[in-house]
Specification:
The chain is α+β, with helices and mostly antiparallel strands and 240 residues long. It has two domains: 108 residues, no CATH class; 113 residues, no CATH class. Helix 2 crosses helix 5, helix 3 packs antiparallel against helix 4 and helix 5 runs antiparallel to helix 6. The longest helix has 23 residues.
Length: 240
């Protein structure tokens, strides 16, 4: 979404496509857009993922991060960066089953091995949760716990901040931001038009009506944001 396109849409909506003259100009509409971005940022819940080399402490200063949601290992099963350094027994049995002509030879042994492997992982995860994290929001640091092998690379899922209107790509949020900007523009325009009221006018402006419309629309949109907020910004993923 481009800033100039939003300014033109707000201006055209209030001026009837440029027929009516507005009391607010482009500078005021830009101020409204910045105000809306700050307000929407409190409800923003769309996540972004980035893959980086693993470290027990990762600097988040360059991530434009509002809050971290989840940390994932990115290695595939059976690779040198797998969770345990060993191949999943069920994964190995799959290939042995296909390579032995489809027989079920030694399947019971592999089922028991798989159960033991799962139990061992559960015990390890109880003692020390793998990929548990703690985010230091003040110093912009992310501390990650790993109890098996070093994963090499990890993927961080986080909620980003919204510094610019151009960073909004979702149709839902484009609609919300546009409608909020129009509502605030109506409020600002309505306040200007109702600043002075003549005692015996030959004609009157629509300041009170447009001010009422703006306040009503703003209240409704804030309720939409409140009810649709997922609130998926955890402080941490749990203890180590």
């Amino acid at each position: 979404m481009q800033l100039q396109d939003l300014i033109e849409e707000v201006s055209n909506d209030l001026s009837g496509g440029g027929v009516l003259e507005l009391d607010i100009g482009e500078a005021q509409i830009k101020a409204i857009v910045n105000k809306v971005l700050r307000e929407v940022g409190r409800y923003w819940d769309e996540t972004t993922m980035i893959t980086v080399p693993f470290a027990s402490c990762i600097d988040l200063k360059d991530f434009n991060c509002s809050s971290v949601v989840k940390v994932y290992r990115t290695a595939s099963v059976g690779s040198s960066d797998s969770t345990s350094g060993l191949i999943d027994p069920a994964y190995a049995q799959q290939w042995m089953l296909f390579s032995s002509g489809g027989t079920m030879y030694n399947l019971n042994e592999y089922v028991l091995n798989y159960a033991a492997w799962n139990t061992l992982n559960q015990i390890r995860n109880t003692l020390s949760t793998d990929m548990a994290f703690k985010e230091d929001t003040h110093n912009k640091k992310l501390y990650i716990n790993e109890y098996m092998t070093n994963p090499g690379m990890i993927t961080i899922e986080y909620i980003p901040k919204i510094p610019r209107i151009e960073d909004i790509q979702s149709d839902y949020w484009i609609d919300i931001v546009t409608r909020l900007c129009i509502a605030y523009a109506k409020i600002w325009e309505g306040r200007i038009r109702t600043r002075f009221t003549p005692s015996s006018p030959l004609w009157t402006q629509d300041g009170e009506k447009i001010l009422e419309e703006g306040n009503t629309e703003l209240t409704e949109l804030r309720e939409v944001l409140r009810t649709n907020s997922n609130l998926i910004g955890p402080i941490s993923s749990g203890s180590y």
